[in-house]
Every structure is written in structure tokens, then in C-alpha cells.
């Protein structure tokens, strides 16, 4: 779910991006992790999924047919795509993780 959210944020308003990328800003809020921290934290807890060959639909490369990829490959591709379109104002948030 978090990886899907990463893929959708580029087309969202600045306010929506700020909420997801920055997490909670006020002590009275229910604590929310910044999105990148949540992705890394969740992936770190996926012991079983990282240890067995969980295959997901991959991406088309160089006009070749889509191939199955591991969870690790899927997360890496989605993170890289997200960082490529990340507004510069959120770089410091990303660099913390």
C-alpha cells in the first residue's frame, strides 16, 4: 500500500504531498511517520517476504515483456521512481532515512 501511495503522490496537491512526506508535525496529532520512513520501516519488518522468492509483476524494460521481480527489486524501482519526481523541498526529509 505504501509503495502504491509513493507512485500516486507526484500528481497530488502540494498540501497532500506535505502531509505524506512530512508525517505528523503537531504533538496533538495521532503520530504518523513520514512516508519514506514508513516504507523503509515496513520493508525492514518483511522478514519472510525478503527470505523467500515472492515475485511481483515487474516493469517493462527496453521494450521487453514484463518479467516477475522480487519484493526487493520492486521496492527499489518504486523508490527510485518516487525520488526522481520528489519536489526538492522534501529532500531533507528523505535524507534522514
Automatic annotation (TrEMBL):
Pfam families in UniProt: DUF4487
InterPro entries listed in its UniProt record: DUF4487
Lineage: Eukaryota, Metazoa, Chordata, Craniata, Vertebrata
Organism: Nothobranchius kadleci (African annual killifish)
Protein name: Chromosome 1 open reading frame 112
